[in-house]
Write a structure and sequence with these properties.
binds alpha-L-arabinofuranose, globular
Length: about 500
């Protein structure tokens, strides 16, 4: 049986667990908003038209931040259409939909409060610019006494929202984006928009668009150029990436290798520009779209008729997808020193952990489970563990470690998250702690026996303790969470 070892030491800390790593994304796309989170007349809808079944699942998932309203949608969006009594129907050119605007900023903000999540807004830098971004911010965050803030008050919202997180556009490097720009054009516009927005509200945090994915022809150069323009004016640089199996299960199970390299490359690029500009300030990352997405099954929308709430990319996820999503969360935690925000895309129906039927039930997909367990149990401080074990040979990524792992400690509570990426071999894991350890519980999602089944409820896993060691057999293609108590762990707060 292949063996893997790791050592958990509280002095090897990466960063505090940032709750913003457990974000999600709600776009006006397909059935994410309409008949996803919002469906007036549904038996489970509350007085606001919010589906309480979806709200409950959102809370159960432990979602912390929700990005809104897009995505590609935002690059043609007029935010004013979605506030007040008059809601014009518009063509949404990004997804060839009819947007009724029944749901807009104020509905979203009421929903975030019901869901207990932090809002993350995106402004339109595709068809619009500095003025509209400032108007929206004034409407949302300025107390009163001006045209836009008084309009909000007139719309029944007396107190400003104080929205902190703002994205400066979406995927502006992509030729598919409405108002797509070169890196110089976008860098300049983003910088000027950021400066003006900070004059409206100096307390906001701003996200600059990085590449749409690591395969973009401008990848790397785009980040360097936009940062040269906007380094001083922004807080974060965004990354997006989606992964799919494409008939290569062994490679797919190692997708997090690519996520890891992608993050490291962007950190290096950001720090290079920081060094070039001689800045002490570090730019941290916002991985604000990540997930499994069967993009090869999506034929695009170019020839589709305009429609209200079409069924778009409602991918059904498998056990293997759940394992890969669990590994993405491990990877984000391993980079918690530089990745400050992460949003799984999207929350409901669109490549989502939560699915709904119009007028019918809401349910959890396989990928819901590793997210919910990680969000609930990754607490305190992230510890670096460097597993020692077998390597796998993949077509996509070359050599990849079979074991991926990270740990968190919160007082005496330890949570160890691990993925065995081998599609067909179990792995005997030994984890060594600084003192005697007692396992509390362990859950596993094993995909090796049937990777494409569409159920993946976590099952109990047997973990043995022997003094300062924990041992467990990790099944092939599996995600595992081990919770344990180790009384003599240093209190992470004192580290
Ligand atoms: O999440 C679906 C789409 O993927 C988003 O609209 C876009 O930003 C990305 O390309």
């Amino acid at each position: 049986m292949p063996q893997a070892h790791l050592t958990l030491d509280p002095s090897f800390r990466i960063a505090p667990v940032n709750r913003r790593l457990f974000g999600s994304f709600v776009e006006h796309m397909g059935r994410c908003v309409y008949t996803g989170i919002y469906e007036p007349g549904h038996p489970a809808a509350d007085d606001n038209g919010f589906r309480t079944d979806v709200l409950e699942l959102t809370r159960e998932m432990g979602v912390s931040v929700v990005r809104y309203p897009g995505g590609n949608f935002v690059s043609g969006y007029r935010w004013e259409d979605g506030v007040g009594p008059d809601r014009p129907s518009r063509l949404d050119l990004a997804w060839r939909q009819i947007e009724t605007n029944a749901f807009g900023l104020n509905e979203f903000m009421t929903w975030t409060r019901a869901a207990g999540v932090e809002p993350m807004m995106a402004v339109n830098l595709g068809t619009r610019g500095i003025q509209e971004a400032c108007d929206l911010l004034e409407y949302a965050n300025h107390p009163s006494g001006t045209q836009w803030s008084d309009l909000r008050v007139k719309h029944g919202v007396t107190n400003p929202y104080g929205i902190k997180l703002w994205c400066l556009g979406n995927e502006m490097d992509g030729p598919w984006q409405i108002g797509h720009k070169s890196a110089h054009e976008y860098g300049r516009l983003a910088n000027e928009t950021a400066k003006a927005m900070r004059l409206v509200d100096p307390d906001i945090e701003l996200v600059l668009c990085g590449s749409s994915n690591s395969g973009m022809p401008t990848f790397g150069a785009w980040e360097a150029t936009v940062l040269e323009h906007a380094y001083d004016a922004v807080d974060y640089l965004s990354l997006h990436n989606y992964y799919e199996e494409n008939g290569d299960l062994p490679g797919f199970l190692c997708s997090a290798v690519d996520m890891d390299r992608y993050i490291s490359a962007i950190v290096a690029t950001a720090d290079h520009i920081g060094a070039k500009l001689r800045r002490k300030k570090k730019i941290n990352l916002s991985f604000d779209e990540w997930n499994v997405w069967y993009q090869s099954r999506f034929t695009g929308r170019e020839r589709s008729p305009f429609q209200e709430t079409p069924e778009l990319i409602e991918d059904t996820f498998t056990a293997a997808d759940a394992v890969v999503v669990g590994d993405f969360l491990i990877t984000l935690l391993r980079h918690a020193d530089r990745v400050s925000i992460a949003c799984q895309a999207q929350l409901a129906n669109i490549i989502a952990p939560i699915r709904t039927k119009p007028g019918g039930p809401a349910w959890r997909q396989t990928i819901f489970h590793p997210f919910a367990l990680t969000a609930r149990h990754a607490r305190g401080t992230v510890l670096r563990v460097e597993p020692f074990g077998p390597l796998l040979e993949t077509k996509r990524y070359g050599e990849a470690p079979a074991l991926s792992a990270v740990a968190t400690v919160d007082g005496s509570q330890v949570a160890l998250f691990a993925v065995n990426r081998s599609p067909d071999q179990d792995l005997d894991l030994t984890a060594r702690l600084p003192a005697a350890v007692r396992p509390v519980s362990a859950s596993v999602i094993a995909a090796g026996d049937d990777p494409h089944r569409v159920e993946a409820l976590p099952q109990p896993l047997t973990v043995q303790a022997d003094g300062d060691r924990l041992t467990a057999r990790l099944p092939a293609a599996s995600w595992t969470m081990i919770l344990a108590e180790c009384e003599n762990l240093l209190d992470h707060n004192k580290l």
